[in-house]
């Protein structure tokens, strides 16, 4: 089946720094989403981005579907950005999202 | 608009018991899917329902089952609970040809 790999697995930043999270996938996909898991466990949808570039405030994402990767950019990081970031791809149809193992981000004040 | 609602938020059960979790999707969303999250295995797909039919199933034993009602609400059931079933169970809903999946807050199940 399709493999989804995220890097780095862990990241520690000082508040105000910028960061780039990467997601590689091994096959063509119909959907790619980035999520932030909050301390209570809920997955917050950041971007639905099967291709192209989107921006939402300090966050932006780019997916290059032909090269099978996606990037999540966080600028001017804040302590509230801490948590685990997941990318997930929809392989074929049928509601089956395949998740990467996540990047755990810690932003220090 | 209301998000995806999962109940209960927390649950403690004893080995051998069975449990039922509930998920109410966003109004208008007809697809509901379920995931299990554990520290060792990460997020794994359990099953997906659309218009009361199971469309896809993950690699879990038959003790894990689900159903969807005509109002799109879904339940999942785990019978004969094992310690290893302790996990965060998340459900997600989506529109047909929509813009991705929205997750609920999850049910944290502890089996003792």
Blueprint (SSEs and pairs):
The complex is a heterodimer of chains A (109) and B (112).
Chain A: E1 4-7, E2 10-14, E3 19-25, E4 31-37, E5 43-48, E6 52-56, E7 59-64, E8 69-74, E9 83-90, E10 97-99, E11 103-108
Chain B: E1 5-7, E2 10-13, E3 19-24, E4 31-38, E5 42-50, E6 53-57, E7 64-68, E8 74-78, E9 87-94, E10 102-103, E11 107-111
Parallel strand pairs in B: 2-11
Antiparallel strand pairs in B: 1-3, 3-8, 4-5, 4-9, 5-6, 7-8, 9-10, 9-11
If you had to describe this structure to a student in words, what would you say it looks like?
The complex is a heterodimer of chains A (109) and B (112). With 109 residues, chain A is mainly beta. Chain A is built from no helices and 11 strands. In chain A, a hairpin with a 2-residue loop joins strand 6 and strand 7 (59-64). In chain A, 35% of the residues are buried. The mean pLDDT of chain A is 93. Chain B has 112 residues and is an all-beta fold. Chain B has strands at 5-7, 10-13, 19-24, 31-38, 42-50, 53-57, 64-68, 74-78, 87-94, 102-103, 107-111. In chain B, the strands form 2 sheets. In chain B, strands 2, 4, 5, 6, 9, 10 and 11 form a 7-stranded mixed beta sheet that branches. In chain B, strands 1-3-8-7 form a 4-stranded antiparallel beta sheet, with no helix packed on it. Chain B is globular and about 40 Å long.
């Amino acid at each position: 089946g399709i493999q989804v790999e995220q890097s780095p697995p862990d990241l520690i930043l000082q508040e105000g720094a910028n960061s780039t999270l990467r997601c590689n996938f091994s096959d063509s996909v119909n959907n790619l989403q980035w999520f932030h898991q909050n301390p209570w466990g809920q997955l917050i949808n950041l971007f639905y981005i099967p291709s192209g570039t989107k921006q939402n405030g300090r966050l932006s994402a780019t997916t290059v579907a032909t090269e099978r990767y996606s990037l999540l950019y966080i600028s001017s990081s804040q302590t509230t950005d801490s948590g685990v970031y997941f990318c997930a791809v929809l392989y074929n149809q049928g509601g089956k999202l395949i998740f990467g193992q996540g990047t755990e981000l810690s932003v220090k004040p | 608009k209301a998000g995806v609602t999962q109940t209960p938020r927390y649950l403690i059960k004893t080995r051998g018991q069975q449990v039922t979790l509930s998920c109410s999707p966003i109004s208008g969303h007809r697809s509901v899917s379920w995931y299990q999250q554990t520290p060792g295995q990460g997020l794994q797909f359990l099953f997906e329902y659309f218009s009361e039919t199971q469309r896809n199933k993950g690699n879990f034993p038959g003790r894990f089952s689900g159903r969807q009602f005509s109002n799109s609400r879904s339940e999942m059931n785990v019978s004969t609970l094992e310690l290893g079933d302790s996990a965060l169970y998340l459900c997600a809903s989506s529109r047909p040809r929509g813009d991705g999946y929205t997750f609920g807050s999850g049910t944290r199940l502890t089996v003792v």
